[in-house]
């Protein structure tokens, strides 16, 4: 049987001196899954993501992303994933269309493919009329949706979203999650971190990181049962308090 | 290749869209060329000259008249006493004070010799040296005149022995300092703008967070760097062109040599500077840090380039240091090609050293650029 896991992590650790930002975490993510990666600020989520997307060397442990090893094949990983960082990372001084062209281009898409793709996503985003506007002039919610589309341009197998909806209004968050579902339906695996516990409920499975370790990992439903509470919010608070 | 093309395209769009940056790139260098070339002069002119004439005879007056006639001296005033003259020197109102003692004329006629007192403000030693030379020339000229007139009165006609030499000045025949300075200033502006722009560029992407996004793409280090640097290479060559045109139009700088040769050299030279900028970018986290480091290097390189002060008069250790100063080579080549009409063979040593420098710098820059931390 073919291995359906697209991410396999075993005892992955990142230490900065004596401090272990990520302390021997292990988990798997299945193809097409929406995997919620939760944790308080400073729990080590971003550090963990940076190791998985090949821009940070792990201190120890194993990790495979899309069948490629994070130590030896980071460039192969990069071809197969999309990434949207905490900080908005498109170019403010380029227009919507220019940003799409640039990122499509450096991922090696043909001109024709870029044209087709950008047309599709601009229509989907409802941004085809403002495609020649500078990205810097757009409201944050629009920027985030555009970032997500750009991260999907080269049809990656996995998309890593690091707090994609931070500071975004509820309506836009809602639309954002519709986009996430749509991508997942098409077979893209979604790896998402968030602070919003209602968003955690939308995930297929959720891991909760506390001080560098994964303290819980299951479906939202099972987690709520396990901790005998009604919402993910309470699960999160219980876990965080236990540690303190 | 296509990837590089996309980066180049993006960089150019960003550069030309940045309304704050464009004038810095194109207007400032022009101002620099025009202002510095006119102001940075070695010539000592308009020397503030004063005198104390205690003799008050026709001889002393004719000596002062000599200074008055010279274009180097501005004869400002006649001080009644030493004390007042010293005070004026202290206040910076005068640079040179000539003191003609009492009985100057009498001594000259009777004893055939007389002394003059000269005080020079020597805070700027080089200028003071020149002033002293000018003063001596005038006094010697005066000497000759009175010797002749004294001889005439005694009716003797022995021809004084005269050794004279007339130097022929090469390359800059009219001894115009602008001819000397303009090519040097041109070096300065090409270097400064390209270093600052390239040094600032990648670190800026670090600051705004887009560099991380780039590092997550499968783009190769060398592709990214080439794409980043190429636009600045073009800008550097553009600046050279603008500078040469201005040098011709405004300063009528001689251009004896082969201009394509100058372009060939500059195209390699800019690579050195861009590599340096990139290296700075790689080791800094903010544009501010990058700016300070770039300044540090540029100031040292400029002062030790032979642009303003001759390298031959630097101490031995400093001369050795100038061997690794890229600006020195460019200044040399620029002056050699433009003013002396030097050909490829003459500038070959500089060309090869610069080429080696460019290779080392860019290898270091690519090596130190890390996609993974």
Automatic annotation (TrEMBL), chain A:
InterPro entries: AAA+_ATPase (IPR003593), ABC_transporter-like_ATP-bd (IPR003439), P-loop_NTPase (IPR027417). The keyword ATP-binding applies. Keywords: ATP-binding, Nucleotide-binding. Residues 7-236 form the ABC transporter domain. The keyword ATP-binding applies. GO terms for molecular function: ATP binding; ATP hydrolysis activity. It comes from the Bacteria. SMART domains: AAA. PANTHER family: ABC TRANSPORTER G FAMILY MEMBER 20 ISOFORM X1, ATP-BINDING CASSETTE, SUB-FAMILY H, MEMBER 1. This is ABC transporter domain-containing protein. It comes from Arenibacter certesii.
UniProtKB/TrEMBL annotation, chain B:
GO terms for cellular component: plasma membrane. The keyword Membrane applies. The chain crosses the membrane at residues 21-40, 180-203, 229-250, 262-280, 292-311, 346-367. It holds the Pfam family ABC2_membrane_3. GO terms for molecular function: ABC-type transporter activity. Its main location: membrane. PROSITE patterns: ABC_TM2. It is a multi-pass membrane protein. InterPro entries: ABC-2_transporter_component, ABC2_TM, ABC2_TM_bact-type. Residues 147-372 form the ABC transmembrane type-2 domain. The keyword Transmembrane helix applies. Keywords: Cell membrane, Membrane, Transmembrane, Transmembrane helix, Transport. It is found in: Cell membrane. Belongs to the ABC-2 integral membrane protein family. This is ABC transporter permease. The lineage of its organism: Bacteria, Pseudomonadati, Bacteroidota, Flavobacteriia, Flavobacteriales.
């Amino acid at each position: 049987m073919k291995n359906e896991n697209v991410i396999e992590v075993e005892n992955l650790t990142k230490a900065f001196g004596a401090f272990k930002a990520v302390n021997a975490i292990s988990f798997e993510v299945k193809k097409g899954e929406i995997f919620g990666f939760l944790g308080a600020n400073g729990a080590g989520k971003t550090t963990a993501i940076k190791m998985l997307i090949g821009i940070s060397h792990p201190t120890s442990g194993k990790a495979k992303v899309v069948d490629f090893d994070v130590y030896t094949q980071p460039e192969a990983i990069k071809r197969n994933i999309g990434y949207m960082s905490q900080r908005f990372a498109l170019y403010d001084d380029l227009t919507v269309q220019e940003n799409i062209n640039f990122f499509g281009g450096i991922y090696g898409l043909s001109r024709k493919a870029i044209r087709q793709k950008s047309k599709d996503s601009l229509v989907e985003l409802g941004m085809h009329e403002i495609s020649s506007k500078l990205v810097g002039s757009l409201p944050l919610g629009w920027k985030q949706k555009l970032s997500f589309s750009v991260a999907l341009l080269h049809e990656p197998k996995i998309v890593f979203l690091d707090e994609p909806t931070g500071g975004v209004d509820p309506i836009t968050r809602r639309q954002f999650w519709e986009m996430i579902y749509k991508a997942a339906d098409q077979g893209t695996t979604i790896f998402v971190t968030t602070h919003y516990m209602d968003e955690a409920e939308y995930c297929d499975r959720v891991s909760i990181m506390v001080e560098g370790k994964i303290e819980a990992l299951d479906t939202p439903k099972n987690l709520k049962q396990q901790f005998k509470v009604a919402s993910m919010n309470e699960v999160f608070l219980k876990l965080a308090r236990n540690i303190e | 290749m296509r990837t590089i093309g996309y980066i180049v395209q993006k960089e150019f769009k960003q550069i030309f869209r940045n309304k704050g940056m464009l004038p810095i790139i194109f207007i400032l260098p022009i101002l620099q060329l025009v202002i510095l070339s006119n102001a940075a002069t070695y010539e000592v002119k308009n020397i503030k000259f004063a005198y104390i004439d205690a003799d008050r005879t026709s001889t002393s007056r004719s000596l002062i008249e000599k200074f008055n006639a010279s274009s180097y001296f501005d004869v400002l005033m006649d001080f009644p006493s030493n004390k007042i003259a010293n005070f004026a020197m202290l206040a910076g109102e005068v640079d040179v004070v000539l003191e003609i003692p009492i009985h100057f004329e009498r001594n000259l006629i009777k004893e055939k010799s007389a002394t003059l007192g000269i005080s020079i403000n020597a805070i700027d030693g080089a200028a003071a040296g020149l002033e002293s030379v000018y003063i001596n020339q005038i006094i010697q000229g005066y000497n000759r005149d009175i010797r002749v007139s004294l001889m005439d009165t005694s009716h003797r006609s022995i021809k004084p022995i005269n050794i004279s030499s007339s130097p022929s000045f090469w390359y800059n025949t009219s001894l115009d300092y602008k001819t000397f300075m303009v090519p040097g200033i041109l070096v300065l502006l090409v270097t400064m703008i390209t270093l600052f722009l390239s040094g600032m560029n990648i670190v800026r992407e670090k600051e705004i967070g887009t560099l991380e996004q780039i590092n997550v793409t499968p783009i190769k280090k060398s592709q990214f760097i080439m794409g980043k640097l190429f636009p600045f290479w073009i800008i550097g060559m553009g600046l050279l062109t603008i500078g040469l045109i201005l040098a011709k139009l405004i300063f009528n700088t001689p251009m004896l040599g082969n201009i394509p040769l100058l372009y060939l050299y500059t195209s390699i030279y800019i690579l050195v500077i861009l590599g340096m900028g990139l290296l700075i970018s790689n080791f800094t986290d903010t544009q501010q840090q990058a700016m300070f480091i770039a300044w540090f290097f540029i100031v040292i390189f400029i002062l030790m380039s032979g642009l303003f002060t001759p390298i031959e008069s630097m101490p031995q250790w400093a001369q050795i240091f100038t061997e690794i100063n890229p600006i020195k080579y460019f200044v040399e080549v620029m002056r050699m090609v433009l003013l002396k009409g030097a050909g490829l063979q003459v500038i070959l040593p500089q060309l090869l050293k610069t080429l080696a420098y460019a290779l080392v710098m860019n290898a270091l820059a690519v090596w130190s650029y890390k996609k993974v931390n």
